[in-house]
Each structure stands twice: as C-alpha cells, then as structure tokens.
Amino acid sequence: MKIQILNETFTLHPSGAVFWEDQNILIISDVHLGKVSHFRKHGIAIPQNAVAENFKRLTDVIEHFCPEKVIFLGDLFHSAKNTEWNLFENWVTKCKSQLILVAGNHDIIDEKHYHQIGISVLQVIEIGNFLFTHHPTEKENLFNFSGHIHPGITLRGLGMQSLKLRCFFHKSNQMILPAFGEFTGKFILRPETDHIVYAIAGNEVVLINRKET
Amino acid sequence: MNREELFTIANNWFKSQGWKPFPFQTQTWTAFLQGKNGLLNAPTGSGKTYALWLPIILNYIKENPNYKTKHNTGLKAIWITPLRSLSVEIKQAAERVLNDLDIPMTVGIRTGDTSSAERAKQKGKMPDLLITTPESLQLLLASKGYANTFKNCSSIVIDEWHELLGTKRGVQIELALSRLKTIAKNLRIWGISATIGNLQQAQEVLLGVDSEAFNNSVLIKAVIHKKIKVVSIIPEKMDTYPWRGHMGLHLIDEAAKIIKSSKTTLIFTNVRSACEIWYQRLLEKYPEFAGEMAMHHGSIDRETRLWVENAIRNEELKVVVCTSSLDLGVDFAPVESIIQVGGPKGVARFMQRAGRSGHQPGKESVIYFLATHAIELIEASALKKAVENSVIEDRVPYLNSWDVLVQYLNTLAVSDGFYPNEIYKEIQGTFSYQTITSENWNWILNFITQGSQSLHAYDEFKKVEIDENGCYKINSRMIAMHHRMQIGTIVGDAVMNVKFLSGGYIGTIEEWFISKLKPGDTFIFAGKKLELFKIRNMQVLVKKASPKKESKIASWMGGRLALSSQMSELLRKELYRANTDNLSPELKALHPLFQRQRKESIVPSSDEFLIETFKTREGYHAIFYPFEGRFVHEALASLLAFRISLLQSITFSLAYNDYGFELLSDQEIDIEAVLDNNLFSTEYVHHDLQKSLNSTEMARRKFRDIAVISGLVFTGFPGKMVKTKHLQSGSQLLFEVFRDFEPDNLLLHQAYRETFEHQLEEGRLILALERIANQSIIWKQCVKPTPFSFPIITDRLREKLSSETLAERIQKMTASYLK
After folding, report:
1. Which chain B residues are Cβ-neighbours of A53 within 8 angstroms?
2. What residues contact B731, with CB distance under 8 A and at least 6 apart?
3. Which of A117, A123, A126, B31 has the highest count of CB atoms within 10 angstroms of its CB?
C-alpha cells in the first residue's frame, strides 16, 4: 500500500517494512535476531528453523525493493552475540544495500562488531523533514519513524467477531512500525480520532475502518 | 512380635480413644502387615488416616523390637497429600499415635511452605515419617544423592488419589513411584481414594500395569452409608428468577435464613470470584454476621486459611464462603448446613460437599442447592436423582503426557543423572506410558539433549549433557536452578503475591487481572477493599482503600466446569419430564419459564431435537440444544460450524453451555442446507474436527500448560525479573513457531491429542450424534431470544471459526477509536 507523508511516497509492505521511494531507502524495525538462539543456549528448545526464516524474510523484502540503503530502527539483535551473529555476518556480505542501525534498547552488542562488517550505528538519523529513532519521539517540525512498541490492533465486527493484527500505527507526525522479526509478540494499541491504522492481513496491508466510541 | 500382638497394641490404642476400629481399618492393617500394596476406598471423615498410619507404625515395631531403647534413624514412610493445607492435620494424627504409644519416631512436613532452613535440616537428617506434596516429592528426586534418602523407605501413601488421578500431578506420582520401586526395595504402595466410577483402574494406575506391585495388591472398600438430603432453594415468586447470571445473589435472603438457623454453614461457590462477591454482599446486607463469617479459597494466604479451618472446628464461625479449597481434608464437626451456589457439574463433587455436614454418626447430611439461574433448577432435580441412585463419575487418567516426562527426565538429570536404559524400563511399567515406543523415547532424549531431532552446526543448545559413561546430566547450575523453580508449576496462570505496603501477605492473584489495573485503582480481594499502589518484582503492593471508592472484584480465570456425561444424561431425562405430569418441585417452580419458552418455541421431548434461529442487533443466531454438557457442545459447535463453512463463505463465533450451543454470524445461516446435507452425520467426524480451525485454537490453549511443564516457557522467579526477562515468551508465540517450523514435535501433537481426548471427548460426541440421528429435528424461527437461549447468547467467552479470507473479514470490521 502506498501512502503520502509530507508529499513523499512511502510503501507499507506486509512484511512490516516501509519503503521510501524518493530516497530509495527501506526501513525495518525490531527484527530481534538471535532471540531463538538465545533461548536455546539457555536450554529452551525453540525450533531452529525459525532462525533461518528471519534471514529469508529479510532477503525477500530487500530483493523486492532493491533499496540503496536499509535503516534498521533498533532491536536488530535481541541479545548478546551468539552463533546467530555468524549467520548474520554471512547474510550481510551477500546483501547489496548499505545497512544502517539506529540502536535500540536490546542492541547491546558493541558497535565495533557492526563497524567490522560495514554497518554504521547511530542513535538517531535525520533526513530532510524525517527523523528515524528506535523509541517513538516527538520533535518539532519533524516526522518520526520508530519501532520498539510492536504495535497491534483489535478489530471487532458484527456477530461478536474480533481479530488482533500487527499494524503500522500512523499518528499526526509519527509512524510506528510493526516488529519485523519472527517470534516477537505484539502490543495492542487503542487509536485516537486523528490516528490512522494500517493492519497486516497475510499478504496485504489494509486500512482499518474506524468506529468512534 | 506376631500380628496378634501388634493388633492388640492397635486395638488398645483405639480403645483408649474411646473408638472401635471399623472392619475396613483392620482389613487394611492386615493387608499392610502381610506386605501387600493396595487402594483403600474410604470417604473423608471415616478414619482413613488411622487405617494406614497404624500399620506403618506397627510395622516399625515389628521390625525393631527394641524400638524403645534403640531408634534407627532415616526415612521410613512418605505420606503424599494433594493439598499442602492438609499436611498439618495429618501430622497431628500421626503424632497422636506416636506419643500415646511412646514411640521415638519423628514426623516432618516438606511442602512449598517449608522454610529453606528446615529443608536443609531435613536433608541432613530425614524425619522417620515425611508428609509432602507431589511437587515436593519431585523436588526430592531433583536433589543429589536422593537414592540414599529413599533406600530404606518401606511405605508410601498417596492420600486423596482420586483428586490426583485425572491430572498431570497424578502422572508425576506415577513417575516418582516407578523410580522409588527400584531404589526402595521393600516399598509398600497404598492409595486412598473417595468413591469414583473407575476404582479398579485407579488401583492399576497407582501400582503399574501388570506389575509385581499390582499383582500383590488389594482393593479395600469402606462400607459407610450416609444419608444425604438435597433441598433446592426455590423462591416464592418465580417471575423474579433471572434467565441467566452466575451468582445467585437474588436468593441471598433465603441463604441468610439458613445461616441463621444452623450452627455453622458452608457456602460453596464454583469459582473464587463468586466467593469474593458472596462474602462481600452478605456482609453488606447482614452486617450482624461480621466477626462470625469468613472466606476460604485457594488464593488466600495459608495462615488465614488455617485460622479459618481452626475457627470452624472451634465453633467460632457462623458462615464460611468457600470454593473447592474446602472440599478435601479434615472433618468439621460443627458444620450443620451446606449451601451449593450454582451447579456443581458433577455428582461426586456434590456428594463430597454434602458430606461436609452432619458428621455425627447417624446424622444425615443436608445440602441446599441454590440455582443461580432458572434452568439450573433442572440440574438440581437431576442431582437429587443422582444422589438417590449413587451415580458416580470416572476420573480419566492422562496417557503419554510427554511434557511431564520431559520434566521428570530433567529432574533426574539435575540430581544424579540417569541412564536411559534403566529409566526406559521403569516408565514402560507405568500406566501413563505403557504404550511408549522406542521412537517416542528417542525423540524425548533428543529433545532434552539437542533441543531438536538433528544436530545443526552453529547451535549452542544446552540442557542435558551426556557424559563419557552415558549418564544424562544437567551440569549448568543456572539451568538446574531454573528447572527446580519450574517443578511445581504444573498448572495455573502466572500468579503474583499481594502484599500490604506496610508488610503483611494477603494472598496470590493472577497476573492477567492485575495487568488490567492502574495504580490507584481499587479492587476487592480476600474480602478487603484494596488500592493498588504499585507492582514490583512480581509483588503487588497495596494499601487499604477508602470504603467509598468503587472497586472491581478480583477474578481468576479458572477452568469452567462441564457437566459429566452421567450428569448430562440425568439432566436430559429430567428436562424431558417437563412435558409430562410427573413434575418434581423444581420443574413445577419453572412453570413460568416453560410457559415463556413455549410461547416462542417448544420444550423438547426425548424424541425431539430443537434448533432455534433469530436475529438481534448482534447478528444472526442459531441455537442447538443437545443437552450433552459443555465439552460435547464445544466439539459439536466446532464440527457443525466447520461443515457449514464448507457450504458458504462465513465467519462464526461460537458459544456453549451445558444445555446447548450457539453459532452466531454476521450473515444468515442456512438451516435448510444444514438439514438437507445431513450435517449431523457421524462420518468423518475426526477428520472434520481436526480440520476445523477451532481445534487449533483449543490446542493452542492446551499448549500453554504443556509449554510450562516441559520448561519451554520460563515463568521467572520473584525478585529476579530483570535478568530473566530476555527468556520470557508467550506460549502462544511458541505454539505458532512449533506449528510452522517443527510440525512433528511431540509436545505439539500432545496439545492436539489432549484437545481431542480431554476437551472435545470424541467418544461422547459420536454417541451424541447417533442420538440426534434418532430424534426428529424441530426448527423454530423465533422473533426474539427464548429463555433457553438466553444464558448461551449472553456468554462472552467465544471461539471463532471462519472460511472467509482475512481481508474479507477486515473489510466488515472496525477498530474503535478514542475521541
């Protein structure tokens, strides 16, 4: 789904990524790599195949848009360095785009390891009227892209139906991205009148109908 | 000393108490002293405790003739109780005999409440007689050198075995016994059970299929006939009786009358939140009861509960509002009346509660049944029939609970490690794992050692390690600690301790309830109005709230009980009587309701199957009335919804109670098509159920417990939240990961199997379908909801089933926006 923010065109992708066409930048948040391995290291037997899935989805979305740059909005790695780092290194060498990490609260791996594989690490990024952070941030005259929250939305319908879905959460000067990673939860948000919610429904991104209460 | 001399000791002791042993007691003594194992079927309050304590002590005298001068230390007997609150009573009973007979044996308790200092002391020197719970027994197996602790143990008694039998704690006991049989060569195993339908099977589960222990065992039944009188509380005016509602508070004045006319009354509610509400309302409406009333449920602080129990015994209380927490255990002689609020759903439970009153010999037990909504009165008259005919349910044991096995193997690996060949033989002898295959076994071993079925490069999985001798051990101290903390969490939601800011522990509350509150909100818990101050380190800190503030009542998820098949059959028979002249007082009282029902629809007879359809602002309702109990309805609803969803693209939300089930949709449901296509067919039932999305939803819920028990979900420990936060995950998420990436996982399969065997009860479902096939279907298109439908359509706890695409559904749905 394509939307306009401050006269710029952005594509909301069902993977949870956002593509900024004019700048050729792909934005991805909360991948939480290493989470499965972290659990396994502590004796909790989560299926290993889930590890490969994260990398496959990353590759797919990047091949789809072929961006010049990819900005990760934090929580790229869930924990300290573990064996998944090696897989990540491998993946990075094959990736043709430039990779940039905006550090999140889970990103406790030393910056120098990222630098060694050619990833720059920043606290915030400002491009034009846009501000990229991990935590949702308000800054005058800037539109903020962030993650951290893993937003989700509850939908209700006739016949006592309800659904909970991952979503892009669009406030007047903010866009909170859903978590990209497999094996991450979601946090249900309650939107206000001036918010716009785009939910991820399988392979589609859908604008959510509103009901005022 | 020969048996006669030993019996003289026992008989004299009974005489000194002014008692005479019952035949079942002497039979048990004899069998025990003959070295037999067994199951004793005796109700609470019958003297079952002395039936087994005495021979344990006599046996010690027999083997140690110089017992008065020379005492051999070390563990000799274990007494397992499912509720730790009962352990004090059991200890007192044992000590009474030991003191009177001047025997230098010691009695100790080891439960979750035992201090670590006490536990350490026990580890150095075990008491002669140990009273403990299934979880604490597992923990003993998780300590180094456990074999030495148990090697001279000559008897183990599993009290209230019927309570454990149909649960995973029962499987824990089976596994522990399989180990103890090997390490304690002279072990006698005894169970004590109240009456259940499958006593013989209970004996087999306890002792092991075809085992040496089983072949050398007896079943002893205490024949004690007790008169039980069931009285329904029927108000003079029936028009005020609500069609639904689960509290029964409209009858509070009738209940108060009973309380006032009896010495002590116990009011049983089915859930803890109802218990809190009844207590609160009674106090508000009858302030004169203050000081003479108390509350008792499983989440209240143990000290308080013990105080309540003692106060009942000392006749200090007029009324106690309680839940199943007072079902078991000791006698409360002063209790004169029992009030059961809401349907007890099972005959055994109802009889057990009735038996809590009128303990003096020859006295009959009186139980008042307080129906919370009108139709429940039918249940009351069905219960009367059940009591008359002594219809008792079975407790169905769990089979192949891989989660419990994984936990058990980790337990052994934490202590001294284990050798698979030895343990495999032992578990094959248990009832639960009698059909385990070597493939299953290898899968489990791979799961605990590699965390998967094949070795991957780059993997750091670490749990159980195999040493050079082939011994399976957990070496990591942290993993061992995590595991010890997890044993014991076999059921239940995450609970948090509730404490006063000023100190003072009040009880435990489920996390999901607290998570809905903000600091400053007030809630009622343990009969107190409390204000939430803050949540810190898994503790809920509260202060006393001002009495005027509006408050929520604490609630707990707790499983909803479903009617047993025996009860549902009685219920159907009772209902079908409504169309005859042979009416019980309850059916007579229901006359106004039946009249309303007949105005819109019908009251079905035994050869009729009723379907009602109508439209409300919530959508299109279709209600079906098989009267088969909640579980069968859950399965039937899923099955039917799935079959309809093949005919048209449609989304349903499903609701059910013990009388029927509802399919609710935003579009009209084509009942003609249901009838024309024979959707109640018994063909392909299993296949269709599996395909229906709903079974996945149910399996997902079953998986929650499985994930906790098998150690996949780490529940964390109090005070150490931060460090373990990175290891916490929801079982929901886990379920999806397993489903997507490891569909052959045995634990995942178990979730589905438990859904079909314990939840959907496929066997009962097919019988129900066969019965429906022989009934004529009556379809009533109603203008508005009928009295029968009302309790179902107002149920908010619903399942979903859909054959529409996600996008189609979203188009018709909305999110609510705050202004």
Report:
1. 740-741
2. B703, B704, B707, B708, B712, B713
3. B31
User: Can you tell me whether residue B287 is helix, strand or coil?
Assistant: helix
* Mean pLDDT value across chain B: 85
A155–B479 CB contact, under 8 Å: no
pLDDT digits (tens, 9 = 90+) for B376-389: 888 888 888 887 77
Distance between first and last Cα of chain B: 86
Is B451 close to A46, i.e. CB distance below 8 A? yes
| C-beta separation of B172 from B134 below 8 A | yes
Domains located in chain B, CATH noted: 3-221 (3.40.50.300), 228-389 (3.40.50.300), 495-553 (no CATH), 601-819 (no CATH)
User: Looking at beta carbons, which residues of chain A come within 8 Å of B644?
Assistant: none
* Residues 6+ away with beta carbon under 8 Å from A99: A69, A70, A72, A92, A118, A119, A120
Q: Is the pLDDT of residue B277 over 60?
A: yes
- Residue labelled with tokens 């009302």: B790
Average pLDDT in the B772-794 region?
91
Q: Is A79 in CB contact (< 8 Å) with chain B?
A: yes
What are the residue ranges spanned by the domains of chain A?
2-207
Residues 6 or more apart from B349 whose CB is under 8 A from it? B324, B327
What is the pLDDT at residue B750? 94
Contacts of B476 in chain A (CB under 8 A): 43
Global ipTM: 0.81
Strands B608-616 and B776-781: parallel
Q: What are φ and ψ of residue B312, in 5° steps? A: -65, -45
Query: Which DSSP symbol is given to B349?
Result: H
Q: Distance from A168 to chain B by nearest Cα, in Å?
A: 14
Q: Which CATH class is domain A2-207?
A: alpha beta
State pLDDT tens for residues A153-170.
999 888 888 888 999 999
Flag whether pLDDT at B720 surpasses 50: no
pLDDT at B559: 45
Mean residue pLDDT across chain A? 91
Stronger pLDDT, B629 or B390, i.e. the higher one: B629
- Please give the residue that has the higher pLDDT: either B302 or B193: B193
Q: Tell me, what's the pLDDT at B537?
A: 57
> Residue B818: which of A82, A183, A192 has the nearest Cβ?
A192
What confidence score (pLDDT) does residue B548 get? 75
The reply to whether residue B817 touches residue A213, judged by beta carbons under 8 angstroms, is: yes
Amino acid identity at B413: A
Question: Within chain B, what is the greatest distance between any pair of CA atoms?
Answer: 86
Tokens 């033989």 identify what position? B425
Residue B777 pLDDT exceeds 70: yes
Residue with the larger pLDDT of the pair B644 and B537? B644
Pair B157, B130: CB distance under 8 Å = no
Inter-chain touch A154–B815, beta carbons under 8 Å:
yes
Please list every residue in chain A whose beta carbon sits closer than 8 Å to the beta carbon of residue B461: 40-41, 43, 45
Residue B819 has pLDDT above 70, yes or no: no
Distance from C-alpha of B561 to C-alpha of B558, rounded to nearest angstrom: 9
Cβ within 8 Å, pair B814-A210: yes
Q: What string of H, E and C letters represents the secondary structure of chain A?
A: CEEEECCEEEEECCCCCEEECCCCEEEECCCCECHHHHHHHCCCCCCCHHHHHHHHHHHHHHHHHCCCEEEECCCCECCCCCCHHHHHHHHHHHCCCEEEEECCCCCCCCHHHHHHCCCEEECCEEECCEEECCCCCCCCCCEEEECCCCEEEEEEECCCEEEEEEEEEEECCEEECCCCCCCCCCEECCCECCCEEEEEECCEEEECCEEEC
pLDDT band at residue B668, thresholds of 50, 70 and 90?
very high
In this prediction the pTM is 0.81
Cα distance between residue B365 and residue B380, in whole Å: 16
Q: Do A82 and B460 make contact, defined as CB atoms within 8 angstroms?
A: yes
